[in-house]
Amino acid sequence: MDIRSISQRCEQVSLASIEDLEFNVDGVSLTELYQDDWIRILVVREREISEFFTIEIEFSTPTNETTSDNPTFLLSQAIDYLKYMQNLESIGFTLELVDHDWLWSAYRKFTEFPGIEFFRHLQPPSS
Fold first, then answer.
1. Cβ–Cβ contacts within 10 Å for residue 68, how many?
2. Alpha carbon of 39 to those of 21, 71, 127: distances in Å?
3. Runs of H (alpha helix) within 1-127
4. pTM of the entire predicted model
5. Beta 53-59 vs 39-46: how paired, if at all?
6. What is the mean pLDDT of residues 97-123?
7. CA 1 to the chain's CA centroid
8. Closest among 127, 123, 62 to 87, alpha carbons compared
9. Domains in the chain, start-ordered, CATH in brackets?
10. Does residue 28 have a pLDDT over 90?
């Protein structure tokens, strides 16, 4: 995961004019900054509330064959990612269990761009 490029992309989206973003039917713009087998990092903007943006990290266990072949490895990785999510909470993110099939969300709202040092905390365990 390239912290600098993720930070730059987030800054572009967070500072973009509302007119320059694409919104879904709910008036929400989702921009993916990063994705791996375990997490997805998004910048969320709302059409009606343009004075802030949200960084959201979604976490779920992978469903590919490679991980199911080695349950010990899967458990070890899941523990690492749960600790990662706990760390996000310690820096101001709100955690939610979105789905009982292990879909977790951590999100934090911002009114100003946090700077590149903040993005070092978003570095997932496997990268």
1. 11
2. 23, 19, 11
3. 3-15, 65-68, 71-90, 116-119
4. 0.89
5. antiparallel
6. 90
7. 13
8. 123
9. 3-122 (3.90.1150)
10. yes
